[in-house]
Sequence to fold (469 residues):
Amino acid sequence: MRPVPALLLVLAACATNPVTGRRELSLIGEQQEIAMGLEAAKSASAEMGVYPDSQLQRYVSALGMPLARASERPNLPWSFTVIDDPVVNAFALPGGPLFVTRGILAHVNSEAQLVSVLGHEIGHVTAKHSVSQMSRAQLTQGLFIGAMILRPELQQFGNLGSQALGLMFLKFGRDDETQADELGFRYMTNAQYDPAEMAEMFKTLDRTSGGGDQTPEWLSTHPNPGNRVTKTNERIAAWTRPAGPLKVNRDPFLQRLDGMVYGEDPRQGFFQQAAFLHPTLKFRFDFPAGWRTQNSAQQVAGMSTAQDALIVLSGATGSPQQALSQFLGQQGIQSSGATNTTINGLPAATAQFAVQTQQATLGGYVTFVQLDGTTYRLLAYTDQSKVGSYDRAFRASLGSFQRLTDPQALNVKPNRLRLVQVRSATTLAQFQQQYPSVIPIEQLALINGVDASTGTFPSGAWVKRVVAQ
Ligand SMILES: [Zn+2]
Fold:
């Protein structure tokens, strides 16, 4: 969870209408494709968070834009955004919004490698893969941009955010992947980048499937269309190499990554057992012990072990009193015991509520509480018939919101990538000894694109390490 600009909250609140006309979506015009992509991009940026480094954002954009402008669809409103997410992923939305995570950037080792990823994703857009995927997704599940006040689908815990997020995890078919690889190859070679780096990138992405704490999201959304490395090498063999040098741009690329956050960023909130601590927003909130919890850019949520109750903390607008009356004023909500109060000395307003949804009648508590001028919504709900059994847990959790004062938690820092230039030929093992990282050597090998046991860097090479700052 991170501070949400007030404007975003307003946008989310105004955009609660589901997209209509689903039946016509099999024939999507370009204007509609663009509009759908932009809406989904807004949700993606809000839900996943944009990495706050304008230089890095501009750099990725400056790399991607010429590729897109040279493609078959140069006039789309292309955009390139680095998402503040440690998972290894890249995705494109219809009409041109393209996203790469800082997680995938950490695994890239040259400009040409990044260009190969961008080229592949541009290929999905130019070949309109995501358009057909998007219309299919809308036909089956409907697309609700913005947040509903209540999500009755308790089962869909993994998808608590906007349903638009589902779009990013659309699976393309093998044929689509092959075509995107082909297009990516063409875009990068037309731009004079060395296509051998595309094969290197695929090797790295393949290696990320070997486990570790970083979900290889890219692999789950990009099914392997056969051996990508082999296919890339076949394309290279069949390709007429142009006159003049090919670009790899390893060192200048790596230097761009110096200082980038690596792994989860505890500044955006982290868990200590059941307690959620947010050092930037300076609050602490306790979930019931043993619940499954999840922190995303817009909210932090916990689900009971029986998966039948939810507690969700998110941002709200207005004073606690205003926010509560707005919440209770929604159609279909019945409430009792609305009262202004304080929670651990903070101004708050709370009520018990019930709401009829399509699936069930839900009941629980809603509390709005204010800290340092920001209002938070604490929502605890379950099936109406189970409110009694969760009553204690709900009250205890909602009553736990408090100012975070623990200096150690307040000062927690994320790990960061640091680039080191080696002065002589160095093995990975020697490097790790000389410049220790806070990650295991296998992971260090992965992000540097070398083998853990045989990896060697030539004299003068820039090498990534990960440090607690
Ligand atoms: Zn793909």
Remarks:
- The chain has 16 helices and 19 strands.
